[in-house]
């Protein structure tokens, strides 16, 4: 998604380019930079990767001490140079992250005033409006304030204005923005990850606070307030994150999971979870998007099974539009790796407006969702760079598992022995995961065969239906193979019509109380000549004849940790299939790591 960075520093182009580099992981299709020097704004923009921008800058260099930069993820208008940011009008250059919902009306008005537009973006109305008000002799601050009062939607803006002194302005509404005062300069960015080592102190502006940055100071300068900026320490990792010996970040993050889970099992943050009075709760609602939503689906099963709590789950983009009923003593939990997902943030704001108690489960402490919720827990996955979420999923599940144990303990729904067993199962988790990862070459062989198909159907039963859904999502997002997932029992209610020799079916088949039912579903698949692939317990092979490349063996393990373990072969399948098809694993087309627009 779009990323913004701005700097007021000597040779500001350097920190801006470095910041854009740190934002690359979010996904983008074009980039650009504006610099203000000697009373002139100069801009360079390119389509494609940041290297193109660096190449252009080496041929057409620009320099100065006040700069803004942008990586664009196209929403309004194609991914090309004209639509790339910054957008300039007269003395004003702007970078924007978010969506200006009423841009068509504003553009209409500006056209009537005689303005000409170059791009098809929603963002271009912003420099035009600011420039329009500057021409009416308003001060820079007044012109920006007057402009943003007319904008509807969500935005974080970086604004350069050529005037008496070199000023960089930053303002936001609904979208993430961070300001930082360093030793060598002052910075603004859409993501604290973009800030480099010179960013010890940071400030998260509130909506509509206008921040003015120049070489003397960083100041809040809304006409109606004289508040001071209170900085906090930057907890974000400013170290360069490398792939180590791995070919992609996704591969590194998959193999990192063993150590992360070892750490989570030693460090039992139980004191955090015991802050929740589960006995007082009538209901838990868990809200999220994508992979985080599938973590919520698994969590629902655990809370219901082990703690007998009513749990509802919802997709964040739907929640606030369906008049949800929030009951007394309901806890609404928001799960988000990035902590910045616009749909999840909006759902959280909705729940708060209805006076619900809210809890955030995030990977990024201090993210917008963590700050907005009544309280928040971290999942301790460390920075996740690959667009496809892997280690964050396992850590979300691990934290939910621990919360479910705490809930079971408080509500005394299961006996002590069972409770202890759940904790022991968790301690085994990293070692069983290690065994699965050691079998990664078996999955390479399966991926070699499966990646030759254009469509794949995933089946699971019970809690593993969510893992089948997560597996299908993972595969389609990075390999671009069309994949759908169903609860196996649903096959006969429709999807079975798709089955023939060109529609492979991948079944998660552990040994558990649903194995017999699943075997019947598998018979239905085989009877229709659909190629069958199984990730499951070795005993399954007594019943079904499968080639080596059609079977991935899951080690035997306790039922409670099956969802966390069986996600691993799914991640490997997606990774290897994408690699075999020559896809960009870490930055798949059209996707963004942090989805900050609705
Ligand atoms: C996961 O592989 C996806 N890239 C995506 O579904 C992601 O999980 C979703 O956008 C939610 O993101 P969040 O956890 O940062 O809120």
Neighbour order of strands in the largest sheet: 3-2-4-1-10-9-11-14
Q: Unreliable stretches, pLDDT < 50, 5 or more residues? A: none
Report how far the terminal alpha carbons are from each other: 11 Å
Q: Total strand count, please? A: 24
Q: Helix amount, in percent?
A: 25-40%
Strand content: 15-25%
Biggest beta sheet summary: 8 strands, antiparallel
Helix/sheet category: alpha/beta
Can you describe what's shown?
With 598 residues, this protein is α/β, with parallel strands linked by helices. It is built from 18 helices and 24 strands. The strands form four sheets. The chain has an eight-stranded antiparallel β-sheet, with helices on one face. A six-stranded antiparallel β-sheet has the order 5-6-7-8-12-13. 2-deoxy-2-amino glucitol-6-phosphate binds next to α9. The site of 2-deoxy-2-amino glucitol-6-phosphate (AGP) has 14 residues, from α9.
Key words describing this protein structure:
22% strand; single chain; 18 helices; 6-stranded antiparallel β-sheet; 598 residues; alpha/beta; binds 2-deoxy-2-amino glucitol-6-phosphate
Brief account:
The chain has 598 residues and is α/β, with parallel strands linked by helices.
């Amino acid at each position: 998604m779009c990323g913004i960075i701005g700097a007021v520093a000597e040779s500001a182009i350097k920190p801006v380019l470095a910041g854009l580099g740190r934002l690359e992981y979010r996904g983008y299709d074009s980039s650009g930079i504006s610099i203000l020097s000697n009373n002139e704004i100069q801009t360079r923009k390119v389509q494609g990767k940041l290297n193109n921008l660096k190449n252009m800058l080496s041929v057409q260099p620009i320099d100065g001490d006040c700069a803004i930069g942008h990586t664009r993820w196209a929403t309004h208008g194609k991914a090309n140079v004209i639509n790339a940011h910054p957008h300039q009008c007269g003395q004003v250059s702007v970078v924007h992250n978010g969506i200006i919902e009423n841009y068509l009306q504003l553009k209409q008005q500006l056209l009537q005033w005689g303005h000409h537009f170059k791009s098809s973006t929603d963002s271009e109305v912003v420099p035009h409006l600011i420039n329009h008000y500057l021409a009416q002799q308003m001060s820079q601050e007044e012109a920006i304030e007057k402009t943003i009062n007319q904008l509807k939607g969500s935005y974080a803006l970086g604004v350069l204005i050529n005037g008496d002194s070199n000023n960089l302005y930053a303002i936001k509404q609904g979208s993430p923005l961070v300001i930082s005062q360093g030793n060598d300069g002052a910075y603004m960015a859409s993501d604290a990850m973009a800030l480099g080592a010179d960013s010890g102190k940071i400030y998260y502006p509130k909506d509509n606070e206008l921040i003015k940055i120049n070489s003397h100071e960083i100041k809040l300068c809304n006409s109606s307030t004289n508040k001071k900026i209170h900085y906090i320490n930057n907890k974000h990792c400013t170290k360069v994150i490398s792939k180590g010996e791995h070919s992609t970040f996704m591969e590194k993050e998959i193999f990192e999971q063993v150590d992360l889970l070892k750490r989570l099992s030693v460090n039992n943050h139980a004191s955090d979870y015991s802050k929740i009075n589960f006995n007082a709760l009538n209901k838990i609602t868990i809200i999220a998007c994508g992979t985080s939503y599938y973590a919520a689906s698994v969590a629902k099963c655990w809370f219901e099974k082990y703690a007998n709590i009513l749990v509802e789950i919802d997709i964040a983009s739907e929640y606030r539009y369906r008049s949800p009923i929030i009951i007394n003593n309901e806890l609404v939990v928001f799960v988000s790796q990035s902590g910045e997902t616009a749909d999840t943030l909006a759902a959280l704001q909705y729940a708060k407006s209805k006076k619900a108690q809210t809890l955030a489960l995030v990977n990024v402490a201090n993210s917008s969702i963590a700050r907005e919720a009544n309280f928040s827990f971290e999942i301790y996955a460390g920075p996740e760079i690959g667009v496809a979420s892997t280690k964050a999923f396992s850590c979300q599940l691990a934290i939910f598992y621990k919360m479910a144990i705490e809930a079971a303990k408080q509500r005394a729904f299961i006996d002590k022995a069972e409770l202890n067993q759940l904790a022991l199962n968790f301690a085994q988790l990293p070692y069983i995961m290690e065994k699965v990862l050691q079998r990664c070459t078996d999955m390479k062989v399966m991926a070699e065969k499966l990646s030759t198909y254009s469509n794949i159907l995933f089946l699971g039963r019970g809690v593993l239906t969510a893992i089948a859904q997560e597996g299908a999502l993972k595969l389609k997002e990075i390999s671009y193979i069309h994949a759908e997932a169903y609860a196996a029992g649903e096959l006969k209610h429709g999807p079975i019509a798709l089955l023939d020799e060109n529609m492979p079916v991948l079944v998660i088949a552990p040994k558990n109380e649903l194995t017999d039912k699943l075997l019947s579903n598998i018979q239905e698949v085989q009877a229709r000549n659909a190629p069958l692939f199984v990730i499951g317990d070795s005993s399954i092979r007594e019943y079904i004849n499968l080639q080596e490349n059609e079977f991935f063996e899951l080690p035997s393990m306790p039922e409670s940790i099956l969802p966390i373990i069986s996600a691993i072969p799914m991640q490997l399948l997606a990774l290897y299939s994408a690699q075999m098809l020559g896809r960009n694993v870490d930055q798949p087309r059209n996707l963004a790591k942090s989805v900050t627009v609705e």
